[in-house]
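Sequence design from tokenized structure. All designs in this work follow the same two-part layout: the structure record, then the generated sequence. An example of the structure record is given first.
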């Protein structure tokens, strides 16, 4: 007789990170090239959004939502001690995410409202499952993640409402960015110093990251307040001034995590570098360089942090050593170059289209490289039975 908690279904549906990281990597590997074809007029999408809104929406509520789901559905069992969501419920959620991407692109012939229901329904399901698991596990400490996920859902709904009323999004896109950046300050502020401390104790004895204290709480609260101001009143002196202050605070916070001492671990260095794009993005927004700031957020902070988390979580939860291979390290470096080209070169070059294509190709190669390396691991059994660190 099979034990009650033993899983016997497809490996791909055995843990949240497997289908959703696979979907995220695959989507990221094709969507920017699709966007460039749309941007040049070589391809048209019949979905509910104009081209720019489709691009922004799908990177926030498509790609990023898949990574968030994979992360949470893998972390929550560790938080609560409960069995992970797996099997047909995980498969159904994956299909709902895919349906959202197809509907938004106009590849499923449904109405605007139906597209909104399908796409936002995915986040409703994720919110309900996360809330159920945390309450059932009485893991009240991590109940704080419900707030950002709920706001992310509201941002998506607002995105649709604005497009329906005004033809394009405004507050919805900023709120989407703000929620994801806040999540990185919240969750990244836990995992980066923790992983760094563990590695330094074993490999490089000496000064350790400063433990979470009042300064970190000030940084988190100030980031929340500043991002709310940016969403509500983006082009005002008070918003821009507080963005610059928040950038200084976040840079100071990052410096306390001893990133310079983990140069020998590319896996850790990725996390530190990705987080550094948050103060840089805040600074650029504060200086009024909105387009550059948003792409620093989108490619550097969100793209870099999610790629680093995908690599680390996949290595750990498939029983592999927590060390990058040369191709995974190269992929991250290509992503950094894509961020530099899109946020700086495109804005100041005489040939922006060539620079756009260069950034798009670098992004695509980065994610495709990771997909080729780790993609088969999502569908295969773990090589060992050791517990992930």
């Amino acid at each position: 007789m099979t034990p009650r908690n033993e899983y016997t279904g497809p490996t791909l549906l055995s843990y949240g990170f497997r289908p959703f990281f696979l979907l995220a990597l695959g989507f990221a590997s094709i969507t920017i090239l699709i966007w460039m074809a749309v941007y040049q007029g070589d391809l048209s999408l019949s979905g509910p959004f104009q081209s720019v809104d489709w691009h922004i929406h799908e990177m926030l509520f498509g790609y990023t939502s898949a990574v968030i789901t994979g992360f949470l559905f893998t972390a929550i069992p560790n938080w609560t001690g409960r069995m992970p969501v797996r099997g047909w419920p995980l498969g159904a959620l994956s299909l709902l995410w895919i349906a959202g991407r197809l509907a938004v692109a106009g590849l499923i012939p449904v109405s605007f409202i139906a597209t909104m229901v399908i796409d936002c329904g995915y986040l409703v399901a994720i919110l309900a499952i996360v809330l159920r698991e945390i309450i059932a596990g009485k893991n009240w400490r991590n109940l704080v993640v419900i707030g950002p996920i709920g706001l992310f859902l509201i941002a998506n709904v607002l995105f649709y409402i604005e497009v329906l009323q005004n033809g394009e999004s405004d507050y919805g896109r900023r709120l989407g960015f703000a929620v994801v950046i806040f999540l990185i300050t919240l969750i990244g502020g836990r995992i980066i110093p923790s992983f760094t401390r563990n590695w330094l104790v074993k490999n490089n004895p000496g000064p350790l990251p400063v433990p979470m204290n009042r300064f970190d709480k000030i940084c988190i609260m100030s980031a929340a307040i500043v991002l709310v101001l940016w969403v509500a009143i983006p082009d005002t002196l008070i918003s821009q001034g507080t963005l610059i202050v928040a950038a200084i605070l976040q840079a100071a916070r990052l410096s306390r995590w001893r990133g310079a001492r983990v140069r020998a671990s590319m896996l850790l260095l990725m996390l530190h570098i990705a987080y550094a794009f948050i103060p840089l993005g805040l600074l650029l927004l504060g200086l009024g360089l909105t387009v550059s700031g948003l792409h620093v957020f989108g490619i550097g902070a969100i793209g870099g942090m999610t790629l680093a988390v995908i690599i680390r979580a996949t290595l750990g939860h498939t029983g592999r050593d927590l060390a990058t291979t040369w191709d995974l390290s190269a992929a991250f470096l290509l992503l950094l170059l894509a961020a530099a080209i899109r946020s700086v070169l495109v804005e100041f070059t005489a040939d922006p289209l060539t620079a756009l294509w260069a950034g798009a190709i670098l992004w695509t190669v980065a994610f495709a490289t990771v997909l080729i390396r780790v993609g088969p691991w999502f569908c295969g059994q773990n090589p060992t039975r050791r517990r992930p660190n």
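The domain at 170-376 is CATH 1.20.210.10 (Cytochrome C Oxidase; Chain A). We note this feature because it recurs in several other targets discussed in the main text.
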